[in-house]
Write a structure and sequence with these properties.
Strand content: 15-25%
Strand order of the largest sheet: 10-9-11-12-13-14
Number of strands: 14
Helix content: 25-40%
Number of domains: 2
Order of helices and strands: HEEEEHEEEEHEHEHEHEHHHEEH
Number of helices: 10
Low-confidence stretches: 1-5, 7-27
Structural class: alpha/beta
Largest sheet: 6 strands, parallel
Radius of gyration: 25 Å
CATH architecture of the largest domain: 3-Layer(aba) Sandwich
Oligomer: single chain
Distance between the termini: 84 Å
CATH class of the largest domain: Alpha Beta
Mean pLDDT: 89
């Protein structure tokens, strides 16, 4: 009798323990990550009514519970932890920047705010949506300051569908601002990305963009709108797959992309002033080098510009074009749609026809 009772007790205990383990596992599965910041993650259940703050460790493999409560309480705790660990960087006076598009690279963007890295010094700065410097120092300190502003100002993305907008060679993020404004009005979470086009290589620009996407807190889907060199950077981005692991890919609109190389870059390839001014990225725009880049297996719409007649205005390019590249060099065989508009290369992002066509393609997969 004793043995039988003991056996029943052991079986009963095992059932209870395994059931508890299963329930615990199921409970853990219901936690959904709301925010990942440095070594911390906020996870929630029940639409934010029950949340927890997790310390994920340096490698992201070690999980340690920090606190549990409401989403608002976890955001407050997160800020306290970041402030205690990293502070707000160096003493700062909120001032407008002097630009420096070729000296600063975005490494984090969110709702118009951005953290940038200095190409030469390696330190970082936090800019708000009006380009006021709100903090500077290490990336961690700038992220700590940003999370404090985010808590206080309570700004959130318009949509889980983010559109990253990349400018061209010699330009900066402000040159594609008209596209960002149009996309934002259409309901997308549109983010311009500043990259030092003349100071780093196309590989480095693509790596920078991948980092930004991995840090895109709240994005479920990403699309791309590019102007000129920006299209080549996105093609290089698709040569790597790690940034695509936890996100859906939408569509791509390329405005005046040198998809088959730049005839101007070919002609000036050995011209020393061009090499100095255009840097590694400019020298990489030959047909031979661009042809080695992958073509993304997504819906792509291409917009080309044209000025003048069939011969164009630029003696360095063959056939009609926008004054900088020919129409023929913009094409890709697998493009879903193709549109030619009247306009010069650098001014295409500001044209109403281009802005509206871009929105229409991202919404429908074709130009109007």
């Amino acid at each position: 009798m004793f043995r039988r009772s003991s056996l029943i007790f052991l079986i009963f205990t095992a059932v209870i323990l395994f059931g508890f383990a299963d329930n615990l596992s199921a409970s853990e599965d219901h936690w959904k990550e709301q925010r990942q910041v440095l070594n911390y993650a906020i996870e929630c259940q029940d639409n934010g009514a029950n949340c927890q703050l997790i310390n994920t460790g340096e490698s992201g493999e070690r999980r340690q519970l920090v606190s549990r409560g409401s989403l608002e309480q976890m955001e407050e705790t997160l800020v306290e932890m970041l402030q205690a660990q990293y502070g707000n960087g160096f003493p700062n006076l909120p001032i407008w920047t002097l630009g420096g598009d070729q000296f600063w690279a975005d490494v984090f963007v969110y709702h118009g705010w951005r953290i940038q890295e200095n190409v030469f010094a390696g330190h970082h700065r936090l800019l708000d949506a009006q380009d006021l410097r709100r903090a500077w120092g290490s990336y961690e300190a700038c992220q700590s300051a940003f999370q404090t502003y985010r808590r206080d100002l309570k700004f959130e993305p318009k949509s889980n569908h983010w559109v990253f907008i990349l400018h061209g060679l010699f330009r900066g993020k402000d040159s594609v601002e008209p596209l960002r404004s149009e996309l934002s009005e259409a309901g997308f979470e549109a983010q311009t990305v500043n990259y030092p086009s003349t100071r780093r290589s196309i590989d480095e620009h693509a790596e920078q963009l991948a980092t930004i996407i991995k840090r895109a807190d709240g994005a479920d889907t990403v699309s791309f709108v590019t102007q000129s060199l920006g299209g080549i950077v996105v093609r290089r981005l698709f040569a790597d797959a790690d940034w695509q692991e936890n996100i859906d890919i939408g569509k791509i609109v390329m405005v005046a992309p040198p998809n088959r190389g730049s005839q101007v870059a070919e002609a000036l390839e050995d011209f020393f002033p061009f090499q100095v001014l255009a840097g590694e990225s400019g020298k990489a725009l030959t047909e031979e080098q661009v042809s080695q880049l992958p073509v993304p297996d997504v819906e792509i719409g291409i917009i080309a510009g044209q000025v003048g007649g069939e011969d164009g205005w630029n003696p360095l390019i063959t056939g009609p074009g926008d004054g900088t590249i020919s129409i023929s060099t913009t094409r890709l065989e697998n493009a879903a749609d193709f549109l030619v508009v009247r306009g010069m290369h650098s001014f295409l992002p500001g044209l109403q026809e281009v802005r509206q066509a871009t929105v229409h393609f991202l919404q429908t997969g074709k130009f109007p």
